[in-house]
């Protein structure tokens, strides 16, 4: 797990080429002296990634410069691959803002893994804006990012208008009662969501909008729901049981260690 959310990002292992590129964008003196080398380097990058990839990388580097963060070399090496894995990179809120700007112009990413990056509510809010506009990303992992209720509200609002999303992981984010309302609204509104992981949070029985009652019963598209390790008691068990009476499409329900009676979770 990462340190508290006050961190704005930390330096990851970066290649010398990444630092040099960031320096050129910042207008470093050596840029003019190496103009021929830069030109060859740009042509080589364009040959590998294509013009669109070059534009994407340039936008990302400029965004990193604007937010005073070190670029993530994984993003620059991604090319046109469908998965972007940046888990455990310590991006922080500022790094998330820089990444969000670049994601809006990236047509390649389908799966985005940002687990354990200390994004906090502010970072998730920035990413939510990009996710709400993406027509390609269908699988996102924002687990272990201390997003809290602010991040939960932002991400749920974004996914409600982005029906491309099919799989969402929000485990270990400290989500409590106040976040439950937004999760419930997401389940009711999103008709394409097939898998939702809410494990290792604190969504107790006392939430006004428990995200596993009528919402699960009304959602006829969700196939996988993980609510394990949330501390639900008998009221939670009853809510699950009632939901399953009207939902015959859910294929996998993980309720491990929510302190419920097995009889309450029997399929109708």
UniProtKB/TrEMBL annotation:
Query: Region annotation Disordered: residue ranges?
Result: 1-49
Gene3D superfamilies recorded for this chain? Ribonuclease Inhibitor
Which spans does this entry mark as compositional bias, Acidic residues? 30-39
Question: Which residue intervals are annotated with compositional bias (Low complexity) in the record?
Answer: 17-29
Which segments does the entry list as coiled coil?
Answer: none
**Which PANTHER family does this one have?**
LEUCINE RICH REPEAT FAMILY PROTEIN, LEUCINE-RICH REPEAT-CONTAINING PROTEIN 74B
Question: What is the name listed in the Swiss-Prot or TrEMBL entry for this protein?
Answer: Leucine-rich repeat-containing protein LOC400891-like
According to its UniProt entry, this protein's organism is Odobenus rosmarus divergens
């Amino acid at each position: 797990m990462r340190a508290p959310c006050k961190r704005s990002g930390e330096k990851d292992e970066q290649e010398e080429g990444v630092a040099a590129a960031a320096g050129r964008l910042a207008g470093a003196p050596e840029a003019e002296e190496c103009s021929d080398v830069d030109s060859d380097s740009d042509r080589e990058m364009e040959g590998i990634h294509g013009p669109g990839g070059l534009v994407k990388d340039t936008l990302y580097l400029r965004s990193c410069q604007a937010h005073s963060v070190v670029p993530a070399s994984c993003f620059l090496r991604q090319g046109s691959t469908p998965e972007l894995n940046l888990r455990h990179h310590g991006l922080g809120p500022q790094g998330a803002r820089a990444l969000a700007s670049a994601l809006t112009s990236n047509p390649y990413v389908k799966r985005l893994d940002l687990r354990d990056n200390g994004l906090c509510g502010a970072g998730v809010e920035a990413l939510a804006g990009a996710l709400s506009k993406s027509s390609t990303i269908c699988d996102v992992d924002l687990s272990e990012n201390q997003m809290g209720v602010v991040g939960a509200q932002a991400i749920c609002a974004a996914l409600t208008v982005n029906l491309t999303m099919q799989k969402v992981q929000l485990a270990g984010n400290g989500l409590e009662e106040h976040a439950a309302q937004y999760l419930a609204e997401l389940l009711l509104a999103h008709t394409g969501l097939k898998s939702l992981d809410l494990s290792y949070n604190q969504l107790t029985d006392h939430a006004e909008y428990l995200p596993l009652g009528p919402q699960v019963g009304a959602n006829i598209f969700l196939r996988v729901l993980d609510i394990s390790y949330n501390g639900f008691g008998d009221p939670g068990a009853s809510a699950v049981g009632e939901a399953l009476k009207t939902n015959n499409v859910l294929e996998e329900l993980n309720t491990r260690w929510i302190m419920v009676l097995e009889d309450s979770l029997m399929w109708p």
